[in-house]
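hi! just following up on the protien thing from before. the input was this:
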Amino acid sequence: MQLEHLFVQDYRNIVQADLEFSPGLNCFVGQNGMGKTNLLDAIYSLSFCKSSLAQSDSMTVRHGAGCFQLSGTYVMPDGNRTVIGCMSRIKGRKQMTRDRKEYQRFSDHIGCIPLVMMTPLDTGLILGGSDGRRRLMDVVISQYDRDYLHKLIAYDKALQQRNALLKMEQAPDPEMLLMWEQVMADNGRVIYGRRQELIEKIVPVFAGIYPAIAGRDESVSLSYISHGQRGDLLDQLSASRMRDRAVGYSLCGIHRDELEMQLGGYPVKREGSQGQNKTFLTALTFAQYILLADVCGKKPILLLDDIFDRLDSRRVENILELVSDRSRFGQVFITDVDRNHIDGILGSKGIECRTFTVENGTVL
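and the predicted 3d structure came back as:
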């Protein structure tokens, strides 16, 4: 799969860009704040129907503009081309289209253009709360299992309804609680099972990629912890009602799942240096990519924002050698602040790359 052509208008600080890409490695070069990340985010939006950076669509419209427009022409695995469009007005609804036909539900588009992205914000996966680590699992699975996404939406709705009942001043109706608990349990069992399958598949891939980047043998692992491992979810929810009522929210369920990340048998957030943490996240990103390519039967698009920061030259070279292997990786987009730096590394390795310079929202 390949993004052949991208059109961007009034997206964040990008006034307009009309770009043709290489099917292999592409690089956006420029100083911080120039718009490199915004271009990656535009590509992300065409896959996920939303920005990876902003909570609301209005925040992605360039200052002074009334709407943004995105259009991507993709070469699919069968050789056919498809055009994905996205338009959002500050006042009005967002539209997503495929070959000019509008989607009625954005969820129907997820997985059409599989994509994996790594950004500096991903340090939150190691240092932050468990919600980010659950989202990592959900984003991967949702791209190859549409039923999973629907069950996740149904679970979240039931969780919100149960929490609303728990917050009521008067005692909530037990039958109403049971109804929403049943929805949570039925969907939660499936979600738990799919997450467990994901981790079982991704761990050996991840464990193999990490030393290939680090250049040395270090033990890394992922462990999935869930209430689904403790027995029937409905029984746990029912037994937890009094405690949940006291705090005003649901203390058990798959929305409390955790993904433990370890380096050398200890939590990576405690043991890892900045370089080790970056290597850990990069290897995890590549493992997601390889798993998605295998399950989907098509290579996703890979976005790597500020990938070389905090890494020594050996690890940078190892990463570039990995992503330039067309037998494993397809189209890759990276950002860097120093053109001489990226040209020097790529030139020494004989790696071809199409490079774009970004300055004040303009692509040169």
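The chain is about 45% helix and 25% strand.
The first helix runs from residue 36 to 48.
cheers
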